[in-house]
Amino acid sequence: MPLRPFAALPQDSVGIVIPQQIDFPEPVLLSSGRALPVRIVYETYGTLNAARNNAVLICHALSGHHHAAGYHSASDDKPGWWDTYIGPGKPIDTNRFFVVSLNNIGGCNGSTGPASINPETGKAWGPDFPKLRVRDWVKTQAMLMDALGIGVWAAVIGGSLGGMQAMRWCVDYPDRLRHCVAIASAMKLSAQNIAFNEIARQAITSDPDFHDGRYLDHNTSPRKGLAIARMVGHVTYLSSDAMGQKFGRDLRSGTFEPGNDAKVEFQVGSYLRYQGESFSDRFDANTYLLMTQALDYFDLAREFNDNPASAFAKTSSRFMVISFTTDWRFSPERSREIANALIRAGKSVSYAEIDSEYGHDAFLIPIERYQKVLSAYMRSIDIGA
Amino acid sequence: MRNDLDILQQWIKPESRVLDLGCGSGELLERMTREKKVTAYGIEIDPENITRCVEKRVNVIEQDLDEGLKNFDDGSFDTVVMSQTLQAVRYPHLVLDEMLRVGRECVVSFPNFGYWRCRVYLGMRGHMPVSKFLPYTWYDTPNIHFCTIDDFEDFCREKNIRIINRRYVTAGRDDDVLSVRWPNMLAEMAIYRLTR
């Protein structure tokens, strides 16, 4: 295979990155009351300054992982999942910031998850893996933070489920971050949102290859169910207009000509199936169940008499809240609720509603205004000279 | 040169809660935050202005004033400020209602369309006024609800809005002898401090 010459990597890329891992000696007590031995896989970009005040944590969303920016090898054809926003001169500027991105526990990209070996049985955890809450991710992120010698994050940044983690940081560790950036997020999911996640979980658990979650012991996996789960999710991450523009009613095969009964296939159907199948190739079904459950369970104000302003009362960080006009999964209204709660609590917050046709996926896509306002916010973060 | 921001800033109490409607690029927010240590939020709709506010480290919320302030509780701010924006909203009377509901006090500044230069422009030349102060053409202007000082005084009387203070600015000077005597003719801009 021809290697891509190093010079061919884009100038504004963090370049080739090597994932690192850390094993914590003591099991971690989770919110479920169970203890879990934890390995975390992570990447860093940029350099931690002498004052150790330029560290930024990136929290990933449902299907994300530690590889947020750069390339794993010179022949890698795709960079990390948020490469358009992390790099030298990019909104999260690695010339200024030391960026930390990890794979959350419960994930399937190297950190301890349902596909890891349960030391007590010698088999994969599978369905026995402890249930997780967003606070467990934040707790283990804080352990990584300590291990890296970081006292206070300059910023914690996340989109969607990642934004929930960023907000949870403000509640659980109010003194350990200076800025919180919540993008296309919400303080809790709506019933409609939970419903979509339930369809996704039902698709997985009703696949005959699921085997009550012990599919790895049977050397198989619920590929069909996971693909359908992803297809449902994927549709909800796009806007009707964006799908209309991309596919319309175009046919991939067949015809509506009279006298022809060849099978008709729409482009959009074929696209969705491809998305579902490629997701099944790279993702673990138990992780998907675990992540969607953590998403459903999250409710920032639950322990504060459902008063979100009280939830934010102790935080000392500044906030940037961003939403996208056509995002109906995490609609602008949810982001406005975050901003309003912060205003009520008297906290520093700015809110921008970005005009975009890309639905929920917009937070991953280069959009000029989004780049400008996020860049402006990141530049406003003081890290000394 | 003095502008309305110098004057309305004097009516802001230190360390109070302030809402700035149509905050533009955040100039007033930045000054109030620095000089008065207020907890202040701006409302703005223009993307470029919002980015400039973010750069200045002032709080800015993207929101359309014409959709009201229903996300803000009654009396949740000490002062609600609106500088040079009243004439640009779709329903000035509803916005003022909302300001007086959300703020214990309101400060509003607006260009006086009764200013003699405007009258000359319209009365003698027969054209809508275009000046350094009001630089827009009639067909491309954010200013859709001009009023005179007398109009505004009548409006406050009708709506039972109490005027705590009024100040006038002309050619960058505030409250000169002439504009105080005959503001509707001689003041270029008016600044009112209001409450219910």
Describe it for me?
The complex is a heterodimer of chains A (385) and B (196). Chain A is an alpha/beta fold and 385 residues long. An 8-stranded mixed sheet of chain A has the order 1-4-8-5-9-10-13-14, sandwiched between helices. In chain A, strands 2-3 form a two-stranded antiparallel sheet. A two-stranded parallel ribbon of chain A has the order 6-7. Chain A is built from 10 helices and 14 strands. Chain B has 196 residues and is an alpha/beta fold. Chain B has a single domain, classed as Rossmann fold (3-Layer(aba) Sandwich), CATH 3.40.50.150. Helices cover 33% and strands 25% of the residues of chain B. Chain B contains 8 helices and 8 strands; from the N terminus they run H-E-H-E-H-E-E-H-E-H-H-E-E-H-H-E. In chain B, strands 3-2-1-4-5-8-6-7 form an 8-stranded mixed sheet, sandwiched between helices. In chain B, strand 1 (17-21), helix 2 (27-36) and strand 2 form a beta-alpha-beta unit. The longest helix of chain B is centred in the middle third of the chain and has 11 residues, at 92-102. The radius of gyration of chain B is 16 Å and the shape is globular.
Low-confidence stretches of chain B: none
The shape of chain B, in one word, is globular
Low-confidence stretches of chain A: none
Note the beta-strand portion of chain B. Answer: 25-35%
Share of helix among residues of chain A?
A: 25-40%
Number of helices of chain A: 10
Counted by DSSP, the helix tally of chain B is 8
Count every beta strand of chain A, where a strand is a DSSP E run of 2 or more residues.
14
Q: How do the helices and strands follow one another from N- to C-terminus of chain B?
A: HEHEHEEHEHHEEHHE
* Oligomeric state of this protein: heterodimer
Top keywords for this entry?
heterodimer; A: 385 residues; alpha/beta; eight-stranded mixed β-sheet; two-stranded antiparallel ribbon; 10 helices; 32% helix; 15% strand; globular; B: 196 residues; Rossmann fold
